[in-house]
Amino acid sequence: MSDTLLKVRDLKIGATVYPPGEKPHDIEIVHGVSFDLAPGKVLGLIGESGAGKSTIGLASMAYGRGGVEITGGEVWVNGRDILKSPLGDIRKLRGGEVTYVSQSAAASFNPAKKIMDQVVEAAVEQKKFSRKEAEKRARELFAKLGLPDPDNIGDRYPHQVSGGQLQRCMTALALCPEPDLVVFDEPTTALDVTTQIDVLMAIKEAIRDTGVAALYITHDLAVVAQVSDDIMVLKMGNTVEYGSTDQIINKPQEEYTQALVSVRSIEHEEKQPTPDPVLSVDGITARYKGLNFDVLHNVNVELHPGQTLAVVGESGSGKSTLARVITGLLPPSGGEITFAGRKLSADLAGRSREDLRELQMIYQMADVAMNPRQTVGTIIGRPLEFYFGMRGAEKRKRIIELLDEIELGEKFMDRYPAELSGGQKQRVCIARSLAAKPKMIICDEVTSALDPLVADGILKLLLDLQKIEDVAYLFITHDLATVRAISDSIAVMYQGRVVRYGPKSEVLSPPFDDYTDLLLSSVPEMHLGWLEEVVAHRKMESAGN
Amino acid sequence: MHPIIKLVSQRLALGILLLLGASALIFGLTEALPGDAAQAVLGQSATPEALANLREEMGLDRPALTRYVEWLTGILQGDLGQSLTNKLDIADSIGKRLGNTLFLACVAAIVSVPLAIFLGLLAVRYRNRWPDKLISAITLTTVSIPEFLIGYVLVYFISVKLGWFSSLAMVNDSMSLGQKLYAIALPALVLTLVVLAQMMRMTRAAILNLMQSAYIETAELKGLSTFQVIARHAFPNAISPIVNVVMLNLAYLVVGVVVVEVVFVYPGMGQYLVDAVTKRDVPVVLACGVVFAAVYIGLNMVADIVSILANPRLRHPK
């Protein structure tokens, strides 16, 4: 019995890329990474998108996603180099010795098969258990992971359980064959914060009770600090820093790690409300066609010129619906909206061009919000033509001004969206909305799809632009750190209602209502033992009640 | 009510409505054609008096709507009317011929559907390697050549040169099943070749599309073999698109056999329809049209219903 379960040496991984307008060619995406994992230990792999962390995780199962290929190095599992093993042996390893939990359980479960069939499949196929034993073990795991009705939940189809429950089912799927190693690939990233905390605790307890080793892959340092023994920080396929969790969190050596630890350092002073709000939402109630219940109930909020109102809530809280009502895409069934001193038509068709110009929007997915066949110059120039009739040199001058404001510059004018990074794309979307000289911009989860450091840059840019252009933001987000960073006032939404609303300093200070308390305490904090503290605190509170 | 019952009954109602529309369209179109049955029977040199007499005798002088309603009521009672040319009951003639056509179509379907799906799965298993390319090349060749040409080529080589099968696919009631199968081997082969490509390519495309899904990756990471992954995890989700293209092809087998039946002088619906058209026997053309429309709409309805039933979200609501 060796004391190392997984030994990775000088792992190199390559892929074939197909850049637009160029010949396909091979690139290296992981440049010689080495690490060890002892039985029963947890190693966190952390980095931004493109760091190669998922690719390394899958390499421990000798698997390359899409066109990805392992080009060099050694991966030893239980004392044998799996990169040199025949395919038949690798199949026994996958689903037997090493199993995988993906980011989106909703996509990773086959919609056409019952949960139980999928959970026991690997264990039965690898002849680890008989079907009957495997089902018994699955039910035990369902119970251990805190799933409701553990004896019968396996008879359901994936669409019949919630996202958080499905993520736990995926964990049960991975643990069912009694593997030696589980690769967790961003297992809580797609979940709401209040759900994340439960799943995180369930995963941590399951790891502890079964004595399995784990590779825990995430971009969220605060999350990985709660579950792992060691952490490896990756950037662009290279190891930046590799050490114990305590050392990485409390005494980071490298500059990049320090930046990750101290991210969200934006200071923003709260502004006082003015007598004339730019937007006031009065008693809005709304429902979607075909639904027999209201999605928004009597929502009242105000936004003041040059300020930021953050609308915060989990998925299904109605915050995006509120944006649809304000933009006129969904006419409300009750209430009215006053914008810049005039009453807005409920219906989009009834709004003037001036109404449209002064109220702009930026979306979460910058790449689908732009026409891929238009250059950046055309994209930003369009509102200039449409609203101000600008042509030729005048338009070009204004485009360059806007490109300078978003810190990209003239050289980006002739590029296509596909040639930009995620952060650059979002900047172009910001420039496009600013081109209309709006009084207010609705920002719908604009930093959610971005890496933390890039997101920070976007938030700083938005704050700077607010000072220059005196534009107001209605900022929709589920991320409380973002809310703290940029808002002047906050509306907390829960099940279609505003449960807490006021200036930032008031909303974020106790005494809290139950939901806001739950939401605030669920945000992972970057210190060791946070998870246990929160869970213990909640147990005490519920025992006290 | 269970949403599935609601959806299925909606489809059924829609199908009946569609069939009604199709019957009206067929009737209207034959009305719009220049000349009528009386003219066809009497020929070019008929006197106007003779024409008028015959029209009155055949009831063609009454308004079109009255005749349509009469005709429709007749169909609903199983009476398709009489042939103008030989005065025989159309329902009887069609009954036997439809049976022959369905027999030929069924044999072709029993061979082609499983073969197409199997070849599709095989093409996915060896995608972009030689088995995939070979399957694609052969099926594309056969679908690109008009079926009458394939028919004549097969007749020339297999029945004339080799003498294995008869070039005429004559069947009658006194033949045993084995004899019948032997007689229709060639036309069935032609039909199979024609419909194979589309079904096979749809199966391949539908499954390849699903192979990008995250749950396929999950299955691969469970250590399943490629064929297990395809058959267990991809195929159940590909049923709906595959059934749709299979049903379209089955409908083609029944409706589109006209040409093949003529090539092999097979006593089916196609022959009957072609004869009726040349003799301008309008009631027979109408009846054949309605039967074809019914088959087409019916099979597509079945495809819709199977798609609904194959969707676990509809079968097992939250």
Describe this structure in words.
The complex is a heterodimer of chains A (545) and B (318). Chain A is globular, with a radius of gyration of 25 Å. The longest helix of chain A has 18 residues, at 193-210. In chain A, the strands form 4 sheets. Chain A has a 6-stranded mixed beta sheet with strand order 6-7-8-3-9-10, sandwiched between helices. A 6-stranded mixed beta sheet of chain A has the order 16-17-18-13-19-20, with helices on both faces. A 4-stranded antiparallel beta sheet of chain A has the order 2-1-4-5, covered by helices on one side. Chain A contains 20 helices and 20 strands. Chain A is α/β, with parallel strands linked by helices. Chain A has helices spanning 53-59, 87-93, 105-108, 115-125, 131-144, 163-175, 193-210, 221-227, 245-250, 255-261, 319-327, 353-358, 376-388, 392-405, 422-435, 452-469, 480-486, 504-507, 514-522, 530-544; strands at residues 6-17, 25-37, 42-46, 68-77, 80-81, 98-101, 181-185, 213-218, 230-235, 238-244, 279-286, 296-303, 308-312, 334-339, 342-343, 359-362, 440-444, 472-477, 489-494, 497-503. In chain B, α6 crosses α9. Chain B is mainly α and 318 residues long. Chain B has a domain at 96-280: MetI-like fold, CATH 1.10.3720. The mean pLDDT of chain B is 82. The interface between A and B is medium-sized, with 32 and 21 residues.
List keywords for this structure.
heterodimer, A: 545 residues, alpha/beta, Rossmann fold, 2 domains, six-stranded mixed β-sheet, 20 helices, 37% helix, 23% strand, B: 318 residues, mainly alpha, MetI-like fold, 15 helices, globular
Major pleated sheet of chain B: none
From the spread of the alpha carbons, the general shape of chain A counts as globular
- In the CATH hierarchy, the architecture of the largest domain in chain A is 3-Layer(aba) Sandwich
Shape of chain B: globular
Walk across the major sheet of chain A and give the strand order: 6-7-8-3-9-10
Radius of gyration of chain A: 25 Å
CATH superfamily of one domain in chain B: MetI-like
Mean pLDDT score of chain A: 87
User: Greatest chain-chain interface?
Assistant: A-B, 32 and 21 residues
Q: Which structural class is indicated by helix and strand composition of chain B? A: mainly alpha
Q: How many angstroms does the end-to-end distance of chain B come to?
A: 14 Å
Low-confidence stretches of chain A: none
